[in-house]
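Lab meeting, item 3. Inverse folding demo.
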């Protein structure tokens, strides 16, 4: 195009020069120049416009393409048959369009996949904006809260007013939790509620998740009952089989007149019967643990009572008091201290530490025994889990039950240099 413009300009200059030379000879010099320029200028303007029309069309196409990209339309490209810098610009623009189109298609596919997953998940999901309007509710949420109708745009509080009472109470309590819907045990459904607050586009939103746990918990319940039955059966057999055998042997000894061996047999029967009695009593205590009765307890008196029942060293300050159920906490710590003595630790290395935190008390039972491997640490607090040959698996589980009933938490950790640390954190 630049070559064409140069040629036209050259022709215009040559023609002007020739015409000017001729007119100079015959007419006035200035008049000749003006006449020549006036005659050729319209032709030059027309020719230049004809040459620039494709460029102007290209610029209009580029501007339209940029506007379409801004609006999210990447469906077309631009064609240019010329060469040079403009050809490179068109090629770069078309490559940009191809990239944007591929990215858009990939994003659409991901959105479709995500929408399919969210809509078909069994977890009811409800997104609420800052004015308590439902922004989104998936199919499970529509079925649970809206009778199958769409929830978007509705007032969430109005939707909840028609929900079961247990769900309304769970939402009113705030935070995460579990609740049951239904009156009959066989028809009762158990849900887990979780709530998360976040900001979307600078505005406060809340995501409410309702997960049905009935089938999963029923399976866990069956497995737990099976394990309980196995443990109880094992313990009963370990006690009843020797009792039956010794009773038969005692009867034979009496029939033969060998009464001197009868007291030993009866003593063994008594020992096994008392072991079985203690075993059943521990299970009953775990199953019927009452709600804690909180009292203000002085630490000094409480630690002295513990020392009367089991030996341990003490670290910490005895000044102050806390609120807890004395009998339950005593039972919890006695179990932990006895476990420490049975861990292979020397008696002088079994210690109880007490520390005051800003808003809680921390009690630690420490030993220098063999500690626990990762598998045992992960399961030690579960009911009926025990690595002891004659253990019931209830000591640590009972300690956890008591601690959590007081609003606290329990943690197990191996100590540097060997041994185990059992930490109880109780609210002040």
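The presenter then showed the designed sequence:
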């Amino acid at each position: 195009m630049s070559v064409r413009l140069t040629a036209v300009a050259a022709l215009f200059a040559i023609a002007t020069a020739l015409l000017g030379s001729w007119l100079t000879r015959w007419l006035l010099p200035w008049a000749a120049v003006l006449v020549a320029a006036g005659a050729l200028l319209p032709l030059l303007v027309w020719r230049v416009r004809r040459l620039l029309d494709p460029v102007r069309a290209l610029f209009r196409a580029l501007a339209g393409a940029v506007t379409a990209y801004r609006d999210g339309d990447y469906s077309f490209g631009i064609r240019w048959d010329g060469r040079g810098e403009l050809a490179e610009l068109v090629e770069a623009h078309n490559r940009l369009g191809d990239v944007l189109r591929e990215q858009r298609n990939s994003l659409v596919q991901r959105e479709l996949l995500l929408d399919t997953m969210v809509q078909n998940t069994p977890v009811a999901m409800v997104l609420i904006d800052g004015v308590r309007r439902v922004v989104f509710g998936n199919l499970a949420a529509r079925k649970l809260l809206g009778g199958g109708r769409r929830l978007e745009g509705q007032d969430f509080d109005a939707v909840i007013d028609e929900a079961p009472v247990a769900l309304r109470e769970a939402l009113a309590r705030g935070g995460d939790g579990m609740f049951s819907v239904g009156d009959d045990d066989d028809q009762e459904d158990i849900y887990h509620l979780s709530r998360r607050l976040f900001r979307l586009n600078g505005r406060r939103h809340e995501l409410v998740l309702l997960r049905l746990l009935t089938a999963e918990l029923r399976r866990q319940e069956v497995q737990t009952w099976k394990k309980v039955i196995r443990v109880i059966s094992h313990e009963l057999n370990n006690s009843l089989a020797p009792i039956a055998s010794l009773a038969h042997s005692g009867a034979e000894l009496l029939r033969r007149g060998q009464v001197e061996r009868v007291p030993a047999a009866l003593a063994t029967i008594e020992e096994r019967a008392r072991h079985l009695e203690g075993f059943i009593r521990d299970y009953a205590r775990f199953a019927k643990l009452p709600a804690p009765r909180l009292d203000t307890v002085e630490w000094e008196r409480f630690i002295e009572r513990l020392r009367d029942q089991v030996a341990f060293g003490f670290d910490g300050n005895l000044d102050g008091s806390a609120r807890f159920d004395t009998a339950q906490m005593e039972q919890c710590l006695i179990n932990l201290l006895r476990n420490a003595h049975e861990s292979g630790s020397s008696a002088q290395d079994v210690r109880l530490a007490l520390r005051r935190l800003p808003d809680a008390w921390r009690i630690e039972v420490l030993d220098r025994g063999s500690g626990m491997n990762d598998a045992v640490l992960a399961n030690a607090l579960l009911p009926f889990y025990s690595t002891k040959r004659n253990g019931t698996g209830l000591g640590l589980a009972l300690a956890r039950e008591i601690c959590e009933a007081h609003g606290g938490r329990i943690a197990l950790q191996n100590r540097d240099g060997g041994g185990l640390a059992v930490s109880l954190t109780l609210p002040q």
